[in-house]
Amino acid sequence: MRLLSERSERRWPDPLKQSEATVFHHILIIGVGLIGGSLSLALRKSGFSGKITGIDRDSDVLLRARQLGLIDEAESSIAEAMKSADLVLVAVPVAQTGAVFAAIQPYLRENVLLTDVGSTKSDVVAAAYRELGDQIACFIPAHPIAGRERNGPDAAVDDLFAGKKLVITPLPENAGKDVEKVADLWMQCQAIIHFLTPEAHDNIFAAVSHLPHLLSYALVDQVARHTNADLMFQYAASGFRDFTRIAASSPEMWRDISMANRDQLLHELNSYMAGLERLRDMLASGDAVGIEAVYANAQQARLDWTNTIEAAEKQEEAT
Description:
Layout: E1 26-30, H1 34-46, E2 51-55, H2 59-67, E3 73-74, H3 78-81, E4 87-90, H4 97-104, E5 113-116, H5 122-132, E6 139-140, E7 142-144, E8 165-168, H6 176-187, E9 192-195, H7 198-224, H8 229-235, H9 238-244, H10 251-260, H11 262-285, H12 288-318
Parallel strand pairs: 1-2, 1-4, 2-3, 4-5, 5-6, 8-9
Antiparallel strand pairs: 7-8
């Protein structure tokens, strides 16, 4: 496995060179759903033998996570769970992150690390500075670029992160050895580590993740509101299914992401709408050549992107 850095300001240490002293012994997962549960399964698959405790706002989720073996114990008290934890993973919708940080802060001990899996980073980092204060150095922001349309502990799988990117957005206060520890945790799950600043992360994912989700939800909502929606859905085939797959994702989670990254998402949405206006004008004026040119450019860009991904995956398999 390789460590890939996209951050030019600072070279972070290679997690493959870590010492035995960096191994976690007790991981506390706050929010035992798809991501938190899949991390637990992936760690167990990799041979992790430490203790995994879960906390969740929904007691039924905790019970199910325990039944599925995602956690060793369910805990209702953060104070109790924090007593021996050396890593705390926050896996809740991004709008809840600040409140979770505030609840954790009084119980943070020396040498305890805190990380997250939020799909936005600037807002999460701002919440961390606000709620953690002079303990900010313990927080290593992260985002696994992986997911499924299903939610909850039953959706957890042990290979969700295999071959997928894990973006870490280190803070100036973070120690290199602590970034190593978090990176290595995800590398044990076969994730490929990348570094970005929080701002670069949010700009990029507004375009390639948050906007596609907004568009997918909007299209399904539009069809569902049509007077003959049942007939339309009856004839919707693989193209519609592929384009709208992500509209089956958690509305709560994507509401929070949309609001958290609102400025960047609006920027990308405005650009997209301008492009749609150009296509509309071409269609209205019968400009078949112009429409084909847009389609051809998009086709080539997608083929190039797919080929790049396939080449990277082959290189990763060879290392």
